[in-house]
Structure formats: structure tokens, C-alpha cells
Amino acid sequence: MAENMVEVIGAVKKFKDVVALNDVSINFEKGKIHGIIGRNGSGKTVLFKTICGFMKLDSGKIHIEGKEVKPTTNQEIGLIIEEPGFIDSLSGYKNLKLLASIRRKINDEDIKKAIELVGLDPTTKKPVKNYSLGMRHRLAIAQAIMEKPRLLILDEPMNGLDKSGVIEMRQLFKRLKEEGITIILSSHYAEDIEALCETVCEMDNGFLVKVQ
Ligand SMILES: Nc1ncnc2c1ncn2[C@@H]1O[C@H](COP(=O)(O)OP(=O)(O)O)[C@@H](O)[C@H]1O
Ligand SMILES: [Mg+2]
């Protein structure tokens, strides 16, 4: 049997009168691309935040590679939840170099490789303010993968992209999967991810159902 990267076991998260996660249980196998679809407000971002340990569950558990996620654990997950802020006047490379200096886990070569992997040019001096939306998305993904996480969580990575941008992202995610990264991503458009994802779940009002 395939190993699980993430196990969500009876996860419950409430905010006053809103039940954002209503007894959610799901396993995400290693080495695959998993998709979560669902309307705005259905609970996708809350699920991702609890998987990362940014948000505490009211009850239930989440395991990553067999270890329970605690709010204090420094999970090594590549993550994009909201549009990351870059410094507009700097190049993509300089932005990532600045961010890499926080954890000091990787060197310049690793940063360049991540930028190349997403199909951008690490040598360009072009400032981020002149990037297209698709290029910004790529840079955000380069940032999320540069420290070589084994799990990559992408919250609505197709948002705002045109058709060709969505196709490019799909190709990129397949390439990352080939690098051995497990990916979980969300979208409110089923068609954006159905062709790409090996498993698809739907969140609906805090409930999660498997559709594929
Ligand atoms: N920090 C919070 N405080 C109060 N309510 C929240 C908070 N975060 C999310 N919610 C609520 O939980 C529900 C699920 O939100 P979310 O996971 O962001 O939905 P989605 O990502 O699917 O659009 C929504 O009703 C939202 O208003
Ligand atoms: Mg969301």
C-alpha cells in the first residue's frame, strides 16, 4: 500500500456559528497531486492552515509523515496561502535570496535551481514590478520549493491566471511531482484541476467528500 504524506483524522474547526471543518477525515498519499475543490467559504484555506499547524483544531488530529502536527512544530512544508509579497523594485532572484536568508538552509545555487525549475531566468535583472501575473505565480512557487520541501500546499494557485497560464501551471506541477514532491492544491474551479490531480475532493460547508 502507498504511504500517506498527510492524514487528517476527524478534524473539527469552528468559528462561533461557522463550522469550517466538520469532522473531516482524509488521507493524501505520497508522490501524488491532490486537488480540493469547493466554493468560496467552504473550508479549503482553513484545512490548509490546520495541516501546516498555523491554526489549531478544536478536535481531531493531523499527521504529516506519521508525526502529529502541533502548532509549535516547524513543519517543513512549502506553502502559498495568500499572494506572497515581493519587493517590487528587486529582481526575482534578489527577492528569494532575501527570503532564504531567514532560515539560511540553502545557498545561491539552490535558489537559482528553484527559479530555473519554475521556468524563470535567475540571471535577469528585471524587477518584480515588471513581471506578469503568471511570472509572479512562478516566483511564488520557486520560493515555496527552494528549501526542498517534501510537501507543497498551494491554495488557489490558478487564481487570476488566463487559460495559457493555467496550462503552464499544470505542466509545472507535473514537473515538481516528478521531483518527488507531494502536492495538495485547491481551486474553486473544478476544471482547472481535474485534468491534473490524481485525487480530487470537494469541500462543501465544512464537509469533505471524495469525488475522484
Ligand atoms: N480566522 C477566522 N475567523 C472566523 N471565521 C473564519 C476564519 N477563517 C475562516 N473563517 C470562516 O470559515 C469558513 C471557511 O473559510 P475558508 O477556509 O477560508 O474558505 P475557502 O478557503 O474554501 O474559501 C468561512 O465561513 C470563513 O468565513
Ligand atoms: Mg480560501
UniProtKB/TrEMBL annotation:
One GO MF term: ATP hydrolysis activity
Provide this UniProt record's keywords sorted from A to Z: ATP-binding, Nucleotide-binding, Transport
Q: Could you name the domain of life of the organism this protein comes from?
A: Bacteria
Residues forming the ABC transporter domain are 6-211
Concerning SUPFAM superfamilies, the annotation shows: P-loop containing nucleoside triphosphate hydrolases
State one Pfam family annotation. ABC_tran
Q: Which InterPro entries match?
A: AAA+_ATPase, ABC_transporter-like_ATP-bd, P-loop_NTPase
Keyword match Ion transport: no
Q: Which family does it belong to?
A: Belongs to the ABC transporter superfamily.
UniProt protein name? ATP-binding cassette domain-containing protein
Species assigned in the record = Aquibacillus koreensis
Taxonomic lineage of this organism? Answer: Bacteria, Bacillati, Bacillota, Bacilli, Bacillales
